[in-house]
Structure formats: structure tokens, C-alpha cells
Amino acid sequence: MKKTFLLMMLFCLIVSMAVTAQERQIIQGYCKDENGKAIENVSVYAYDSLLVSVTDEQGRFTYSLAKAGMRLRFAHMVFEPAYYTITEKDINGKNLTINMKTKSHELLEVEVTANAPHIAFDNPVMTVLDYTLRDDGIYLIAYRRRNAVLLHLSFDLDTLHELPISSRYKYLSKDAFGDIYAINDYQASQVGFIEYGNGRKGQMNFYHSMSRKTFLDKFSTIVAASDSIFITGRYFYYNKEMGYFCNVIGGGEEHYLLHYIVDEEGRDDIWLLTHTRGIGANFWVADPIYNPIYAIDNKFYLFAYTDHEVIVFDNVGKELERHPLTFHQYRKWNGKMEPDRRWKQKMMMDAARKEFYTFFVTDGIYTLKRIDLETGTATSVMDLSGYPFAQNLRIHDGVLYFIYPTGMNKRKALYQVRVE
To answer: Which of 105, 133, 152 is the last residue of a domain?
Structure first.
């Protein structure tokens, strides 16, 4: 009994020492601009580009695993990066003040300020769950406790239509034909309107519904469409080969091959693995090759990253032209081209301006780049360091939209910012 009591006392002493040690590692402070105003959404990075904190609406940050000598980096898309080296006095001491300077641009200051992300839609008692964009505006699901609403907004952010819906609906999806569906765990409901003779849209409602499984089986492989055909995609051989097929709208004809892509190096590696003794065919699960296709103005643009080229097709799938695609690679010292690990396999299309964008990540900072279809290069247009973990990024007519927490009651709002 005495031995057990001593062990318990020793355990409590160790826990107490650990907690005390952790308390001594806390630093906190505020980020402010040249005028002493708090800066929200500043990303705080430690060594190894590890994101350790993000400032709240008062500009406050907290880091509980600080060590003397550690160098912190403070990043925001509108301000120059700031650096601070932690001292012994800072740990568990007074609040720090990190002063940040506005980035110097050739643009006027008012233009720089106007280009900072700002809230496009926010309701003080609701949170934004999901949204999608179409030529006729923004479609958005907002949620409050047990109530949800589907909103149709203009790009000037006026509410055009409003439909109370079940709180089970969490997502919105736009298919290759431009139809929008509200989706929950069980079903998908198509959004439609009562249209009058003059073309004006009346009440918004669910046009028809289907099971979620039926929706996925029907539309998950359809990736793009023109006025004559729709394109379906399918992976083969452990996701290292893929084919795009043309399907005539209205049926009556068998589908035909648009283009077939093979990652020969990846395929050979998997062949060796699956034919090695002790490794079965079901053992290996490979990441799929990334070669997206988009439709704009009855043309198809295939970004064949595996083959390092952009291939353009007409509305029936006839090849029109090819362009090099190089921005996702870099040349090593020995002259060999290698994949750029900073590039994230993600693209966005601005259908209104016929432009394509992609993301690079450097030291934890996301950079949006515009792709030049003629040269295959990409040019930086925006730094998103002030908004880490932004969700559902989409672009329309030169405006970037994304969902991000407001800092109050864990609510999320829809933000927007011009990319020019």
C-alpha cells in the first residue's frame, strides 16, 4: 500500500513538472500596422515553416511551445513579412508587439487596400457551409442551428432568391452541364426556377431529386461538355493510365476515344511492385495522375501534365492545337527536368475571362498563379499568406472567392478579393 502511494505521488509530481514546464513556454502578443491598428489573419510560422498561430480580430496570437532563440515569421498578403527571435524574457512574459509595414507597390495605396480580401457574404447568426458559382450568380448554403437556407446572390451580392431547405443539405455541386445540385448524405436535389415568358426567373425550388448514389454514378465520370458531346474520364492500371472518351449528346452513337494518357515511369514502378514476391495486386494503391480537362466556349482544354502539354479540341473532340506545359517543373543542375514540389495539383478556371490558375506553396505560403496557355508558364498574381486553410477557392470574372472563419463563434463567411 505504501509503495502504491509513493508511486502515485511520483506520478503526480512528474505531471506537475511537465505542466509547469509547458506553461513556461507560452508567448503571446499582437500584430499591428504602421498606424497601430490590429491586423487580423496574420500567419505565424516557426522554424521548418510550421504554422503555429493565426491572429484573431484583435491581432492577437499565442504560441505555447516557444523556446528561446526560436525565430518566428509573420506573414500577411497585404504586409511585408516580419521576423522576431524569441528571448528568455519573452517566454511567459509581457505581450509582444509585432509591427508590420504595408507592402510597397507601384499602385496607389487606396488600390492596395481595396485589393485586400473582404467579406462578401456574412450573417451574424449564420455560417456559410458551401457555395458554387455560375454565370447567373452565386449559390450558397447558410446554416443556423437546425435551419438552413439556399441563397442565390448576384455578383453585386444582392439576394435574388431564397429557399429554406433541410439542414441535412451541406454541399453544392455544379455538373459539367452547368446544373446545380444541393447534396446531403442521402440524396441530391437539382436547383431550378419557374421561368416566365420574358425569360425572368421566378421562384427558386428543387426541380427533382435522386439518391446520392445515383447522382454519383451518373455524373461523377462526366468532366466536361460542349453543345455536341460530353467527356467522360476513367482511370486504368492503378491510376497510372487514364482515358477521356467522347459521348454524343442525345445518344445514338457509341463513345469514342478523345485522348489516352500513360505515366510510363509510374506504371513501370507499380508493375515491379505488384510482381515482387510477397506483394499482391491489391496491395498497392497509387495516387491518380493529374490531367484535368475544361470546357470553355465549345472548346476543350486538356492539361496533360503527364505529357507536359496543353491540348485544345473543338466541340466534337477534334484536335486543334498543342502548347507546351512547363510551369510545374524545374531544371536541376544536371539539366534534367524534375517536378516542382511547391506546385499543388490544383487548378481553377475563370470561365468569364477564359483564364486558368494554379497554386504554389513556399514555406507554408500559398501563391496563386495565372497560367499562360501559349508558353506553358505561370505568373504570380496573389499571395494568400494571410488566410491559411482557406476553403473552396473559386474564381469568376477576375474575383477570387473563398470560405474562411470570421473569428467569432466559429462562424464561416464568404470572402472575395480581386486577383488583378
So the answer is: 105
* Distance, CA of 322 to CA of 315 (rounded, Å): 16
Sorted by sequence, the CB contacts under 8 Å of residue 215 that are 6+ apart come out as: 181, 183, 187, 188
All three cell numbers of 125, joined, read: 447568426
Residue that finishes a domain, picked among 173, 191, 220: 220
Residue-wise pLDDT tens for the chain (420 aa)?
Answer: 445 544 555 555 554 544 444 455 789 999 998 888 888 888 888 865 677 888 887 889 988 888 888 889 888 877 888 999 999 888 888 889 999 987 754 333 333 334 577 888 877 778 999 999 999 999 999 988 778 999 999 999 899 999 999 999 999 999 999 999 999 999 999 999 987 777 677 889 998 899 999 999 888 889 999 999 999 999 998 899 999 999 998 877 788 999 999 999 888 888 887 776 545 545 455 689 999 999 999 999 999 999 999 999 999 999 999 999 999 988 877 778 888 888 888 899 999 999 999 988 776 677 889 999 989 999 888 877 777 778 899 999 999 999 988 766 678 899 999 886
Cell digits of residue 150? 439556399
Do the domain assignments include residue 328? Answer: no
Range of the domain at 79: 26-105
Residue 299 lies in a domain: no
286 inside domain:
no
pTM: 0.74
Residue of 352, 368, 370 whose CA lies nearest to 360: 368
The answer to whether residue 82 sits within a structural domain is yes
Return the CATH number at 32: 2.60.40.1120
As a whole number of angstroms, the distance between CA 123 and CA 100 comes to 30
